[in-house]
Amino acid sequence: MNAIGTIAPSETAASRLKTVPFWAPEREPYKRDLRKAWYHFFEFKKDKEDTSEVFRFFDHLPWVDVDKTVAAFLSTDEGKRVFETEPFLPDILDDHETLRRDYPEGSLAHAYCDYMETEGLSAAGLVAEFEEFRLEGGRPDDQIEWYNDRLRDTHDLLHLLSGIGRDTLGEATLGAYVFGQRPSHGHLILGVAGSLVMKTSVTTKAPVLRAIWDAKAAGKNCVPIAEQSIRDLLALTPDKARAKLNMKPARVYEECLAVWAKEGIDPLAILAKEDPSAGTRPGKSESVKGEGTKGQAQQA
């Protein structure tokens, strides 16, 4: 292992692609069940402290074709390289000492470290939260789960690069923003539901519902970050990383923040305990929404 965690060629003699199955025997087929999803949604509405119901909601509205996306990516030379050299992103992302030492000032690596330290977050913290709920059905150790993990572990990188905050609307907006690269209808539905609750619960002129649809459109042509070498991405400046990923700003979300600033509304305080898309990952500002359970659901 070299300075920034890259696996040396001698260490890849036993290819992970040959030893890690594509679809583990214990993995159940993905399927949507809207009736069960809404049951868990309304159970959560009864007790907003029980965020396990949010995870179950996502579990019943998964990205059913994720296996096709994973197979297509891992059939490419780049996909094979990333699979072999980046087995677990938190080992890279949480090693701030190494990131600061081995990447230049002004790089995304430094910006990411600054962001996570300011917010009081870690990639491992999000993993721990997710694992707590995933214990219900175990964790399939396969190539699909590796891809799903990357969706989760790049969540905060996407916050940083998109400029979308970790407030209630920001979490809903980010879910819509990445819908094109992770089409899990559960996240989109909860984003819309959350914006509707905000609209009916807070007196504001902010176009919160339009922010969701604008973000979905803005992120439609983004390059999937899960399919990038995160080490290579971290070496770029934030602006060059955005350009590489074809990331466009979420303008209506920004408009909402401007409206709230004029109205004297703190976006971090809106629906702090009411948001149907919020989870229990505390940072220095607020929670990050939950993802899934049973080792089946896709991460944000």
Question: How is this structure best described in words?
Answer:
The protein is mainly alpha-helical and 300 residues long. It has one domain (34-263). The chain contains 17 helices and no strands. Helix 2 packs antiparallel against helix 3, helix 12 (168-177) runs parallel beside helix 14 and helix 14 runs antiparallel to helix 17 (251-263). The chain is globular and about 60 Å long. Residues 1-13, 274-282 and 285-297 have low confidence and may be disordered.
Name its key features.
300 residues; 17 helices; disordered N terminus
SSE ordering: HHHHHHHHHHHHHHHHH
Number of domains: 1
The Cα radius of gyration reads 19 Å
The unreliable regions are 1-13, 274-282, 285-297
**Which range does the strand content fall in?**
under 5%
Overall shape: it is globular
Short summary:
The chain has 300 residues and is mainly α. Helices cover 54% and strands 0% of the residues.
Please give the structural blueprint.
Blueprint: H1 16-19, H2 34-46, H3 52-59, H4 66-74, H5 77-85, H6 89-93, H7 96-102, H8 108-119, H9 123-134, H10 143-153, H11 155-162, H12 168-177, H13 185-201, H14 208-218, H15 230-234, H16 238-245, H17 251-263
